[in-house]
C-alpha cells in the first residue's frame, strides 16, 4: 500500500498528550504503557468503537470518529474547561446522542466545566444541567436547577438579543 501522509488516529492521540517540547519526538513516545492508558480510557468511555480504527489515517475516518478523537484527547488531558463547538453537527441522531453521553460522562468524572456551542438547542437544553445564553457581549439568561426546569423553552430565542445587530445590517 502507498504510504499515506499525515498521522494515524493513535499517533494523533499520543501527540496531543505530550508536552509541546517533545512533539518532534512523538514517534518514540508510542510505548506499550501509553497505548495501555489510551485503551483503558477508550474502554471506560466507549468512544464509538474508535479502538477499531486506531491505526487508520485521520484522512480515512468518518467525521464522528474525529469528534470522538477530540473527546479521547480531552479525557486524557484532563482540562479544567472543555470547549466544544457543534460536536453533533451533521451526525445521525443516535451517534450524536452517544457522543453527548460520552462527553457528559467525561465532564462529570473529571469535574470539568463544559462550554458548548450546539446546533440543536432543544435537545442540548434538556441534556445539560445549566444554560447560559449570551448576546451582544453580555449574559442574557443563566438557568440551572429548578429555574431551568420551569423555563418555557419556546421563549429561549427572545433571550439572544440579536435584533440590534440585524437592524445594523
List keywords for this structure.
alpha+beta; two-stranded parallel sheet; two-stranded antiparallel sheet; 7 helices; 44% helix; elongated; 169 residues
Please outline the helices and strands:
Elements (H helix, E strand, L loop, with lengths): L8 H9 L14 H14 L17 H15 L3 E5 L7 H17 L3 E5 L3 H7 L2 E6 L2 E7 H6 L12 H6 L1
Parallel strand pairs: 1-2
Antiparallel strand pairs: 3-4
Helix pairs in contact: 1-3, 3-4
Low-pLDDT runs of 5+ residues are: none
Strand order, sheet with most strands: 1-2
What structural class results from the helix and strand content?
A: alpha+beta
Helix content: 40-55%
How many strand units? Answer: 4
What is the overall silhouette?
A: elongated
Instruction: Give the distance, in angstroms, between the N- and C-terminal Cα atoms.
Output: 54 Å
The biggest beta sheet, please? 2 strands, parallel
What is the number of helices? Answer: 7
Mean of residue pLDDT values: 82
What share of residues are in beta strands?
5-15%
Order of helices and strands: HHHEHEHEEHH
Characterize this entry briefly.
It is built from seven helices and four strands; from the N terminus they run H-H-H-E-H-E-H-E-E-H-H. The protein has 169 residues and is of the alpha+beta class. The strands form two sheets. The protein has a two-stranded parallel ribbon with strand order 1-2. It has a two-stranded antiparallel ribbon with strand order 3-4.
Amino acid at each position: 500500500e502507498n504510504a499515506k501522509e499525515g498521522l494515524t488516529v493513535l499517533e494523533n492521540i499520543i501527540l496531543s498528550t505530550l508536552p509541546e517540547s517533545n512533539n518532534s519526538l512523538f514517534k518514540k513516545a508510542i510505548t506499550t504503557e501509553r497505548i495501555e492508558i489510551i485503551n483503558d480510557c477508550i474502554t471506560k468511555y466507549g468512544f464509538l468503537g474508535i479502538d477499531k480504527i486506531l491505526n487508520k489515517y485521520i484522512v480515512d475516518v468518518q467525521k464522528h470518529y474525529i469528534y470522538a478523537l477530540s473527546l479521547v484527547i480531552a479525557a486524557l488531558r484532563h482540562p479544567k474547561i472543555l470547549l466544544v463547538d457543534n460536536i453533533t453537527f451533521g451526525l445521525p441522531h443516535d451517534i450524536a446522542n452517544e457522543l453527548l453521553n460520552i462527553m457528559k460522562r467525561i465532564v462529570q468524572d473529571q469535574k470539568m466545566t463544559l462550554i458548548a456551542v450546539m446546533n440543536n438547542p432543544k435537545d442540548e437544553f434538556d441534556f445539560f444541567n445549566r444554560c447560559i445564553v449570551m448576546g451582544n457581549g453580555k449574559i442574557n439568561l443563566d438557568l440551572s436547577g429548578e429555574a431551568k426546569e420551569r423555563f418555557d423553552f419556546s421563549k429561549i430565542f427572545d433571550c439572544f438579543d440579536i435584533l440590534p445587530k440585524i437592524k445594523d445590517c
